[in-house]
TrEMBL record:
Source species, domain of life: Bacteria
Transmembrane annotation, as ranges: 273-294
UniProt name for this protein: Uncharacterized protein
Species annotation: Larsenimonas suaedae
Entry keyword set: Membrane, Transmembrane, Transmembrane helix
Tagged with keyword Membrane: yes
UniProt key word Transmembrane: yes
């Protein structure tokens, strides 16, 4: 688990949930595949997904459909059709993203399963930066082990929950857990795009922070207060594991990949859940089987 100076992360909690995430995503990505997307409009001409060592697509980690012209230019993700090695640190980053969003699931706009199946993991890896002067999608570098992390972002004394994805120039890049409306006058002068956003707001100078977008944030607005990481503010670990297990079952069932990949995914899920974390893993494993049987 990430150790950050001055933070109040409950290390045992995150280590426990992260260990379970690693168990149910035991198909460690072997390669990234980028191909032409013939199922969507020309606005997203390419799709990117993971395959394992058996050439099966890993359905839990989803598919990213994207326009290469909007992707950030630092090279974290390949932008041309082909097969590529998985960027160093990317799998660690994915495990942390999943773990943290499970931890604060009750503070998000949607339940974890709904959000996952609607947006998938890729909305974290390819978020549009709303307060940037360029129309680009942000993708993290994966090489900085300090990210991602959960944090409080405060504007004029009002707190909001964010997942901090990385850094761009002098700012942190964060994604809110739910839709927030913020008076433009509450934003600090150092908030990028403050004047432009206020002038173009259609909500009487109340700015809408959208949960599927990212924002450049002044670092002084970001901290991690201890009460936000106490047990009552976190999803119970057994519940977090059960939610993930449900998503594993649903994502495998709804996979649009070849039948062999679906069977491989389900076999890997069933074989890895039971030994994961004792009682929590048993509950989660039963949830997977229940979901699949009911669909």
């Amino acid at each position: 688990m990430i150790k950050r100076s001055g933070t109040h992360y409950p290390r045992a909690y995150f280590d426990t949930v992260a260990a379970f995430v690693q168990q149910v995503t035991k198909q460690v990505p072997s390669e990234l595949v980028v191909s032409q997307d013939t199922s969507r409009s020309c606005m997203t001409p390419l799709k990117l997904y993971f395959i394992d060592e058996h050439e099966a697509r890993i359905s839990l980690l989803g598919v990213l459909r994207f326009d290469p012209e909007r992707m950030a230019g630092h090279g974290a993700l390949p932008l041309q059709p082909g097969r590529y090695p998985v960027p160093e640190g990317m799998y660690r980053y994915l495990v942390q993203v999943i773990t943290q969003r499970l931890a604060w699931n009750q503070h998000s706009d949607h339940g974890f399963a709904t959000e996952w199946l609607t947006h998938g993991l890729w909305d974290t890896l390819a978020c549009r930066i709303e307060n940037s002067n360029q129309l680009t999608d942000y993708t993290p570098s994966f090489s900085d082990s300090a990210f991602p992390y959960l944090a409080r972002v405060t504007f004029n004394g009002q707190p909001y929950r964010f997942q901090i994805l990385g850094r761009q120039h002098d700012y942190l890049v964060g994604r809110p857990f739910r839709e927030y409306h913020v008076d433009s006058g509450n934003l600090p002068d150092t908030f990028p795009g403050r004047e432009w956003l206020a002038e173009n707001s259609v909500l009487n100078h109340r700015l809408m922070f959208m949960s599927d977008c990212a924002y450049l944030l002044p670092e002084l607005c970001v901290d991690q207060p201890a009460p936000w990481f106490e047990p009552e503010s976190m999803t119970p670990p057994e519940q977090a594991c059960q939610m993930l297990a449900q998503v594993v079952g649903l994502s495998s069932y709804l996979s649009d990949d070849q039948p062999g990949a679906l069977a491989t995914s389900e076999r890997a899920t069933r074989s890895s859940i039971l030994p994961a974390l004792g009682g929590a893993a048993v509950v989660a494993g039963l949830a997977v089987l229940t979901v699949i049987m009911c669909l």
